[in-house]
Each structure stands twice: as structure tokens, then as C-alpha cells.
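Morning run. Coffee first, then this:
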Amino acid sequence: MFIDTCILLATGAIAAIATFFVSERLAQGPVRSSAGLSLLVAAFFYFFPHSLGPFLTKNIPVVFIGASFVGMVSARLSSSYLRLATAGVLFCLIYLNTSSFFNGYGGALGTTASISLLAVLSLPVLNIKGRLTNGFRQLRKAIYGRRQR
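And here it is:
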């Protein structure tokens, strides 16, 4: 079970990074890159269902699709592959621990991807002491900079 979880965590990180790479570096756009890569992974497990165990065969395509939503982020917001990988891993952790909670709700993968991406993007706002200073400094500069003009 531990190995399966590690494989899913790696899948989440790879999906987010691969989607962002195809979107930005290969200029395919976020929707096309997410859909194309997800189709490849889903088709592989559709045609080769016994290549891995039943748990991985069922969950790898779902984790890949959801983590590819993380990789659809704009390069203006995050161009760090480490942050994207962290958000992909966080997506997988949330998915593994709350997937039964989202049964019957539409958009569960997108919502979970959004939560994980926002959590990772908010980390630089916190400084070492755990206070929100950097974000407030930027906000103050934006507000007062506009008033003086």
C-alpha cells in the first residue's frame, strides 16, 4: 500500500509538471495539454488494465487528470516546477484522504486542484516566523503607489 501511495504521489507531481511544460514550452495551451496528456494516460490504462494492480489502474488516471488541472496554471502565477510538483503531490494527498467525501459532487477534481494550487501559491506570502508580511507589503505598495500618482 505504501508503494502504491508513492506511485500516486509521483503521478501527481509528474502530471502537474508535464501539463505545464507542454502548455508553456511546447505552446499547446493549458486545455489542450491537459486533455492530451490525460487522454494518453487514460487510454493506456483502458487498453492495458492488467499492467498494474487494480488500485493503481483505477486511481492513476484520476490522479493524473486532477493533477493536470494544477498544471494548467498561468506562467505569470507560477513558473516554478518545484511549486507545481508540490501542488501535484498535495492534490494527490487531498484526493486520497477525501475522495469519498466528494462522491456525487461535480467538479471534485477541479476543486481539489484549486485548493492545492492556492495553498502552494500562498506559501511565499508567509515568512519564516509565520506572519503574513510579504503579501501585506505588496498590497500596501500597490495601494499607496496608486494614490500618490
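The helical segments are 2-24, 30-47, 54-70, 81-98, 108-121, 134-148. Good start to the day.
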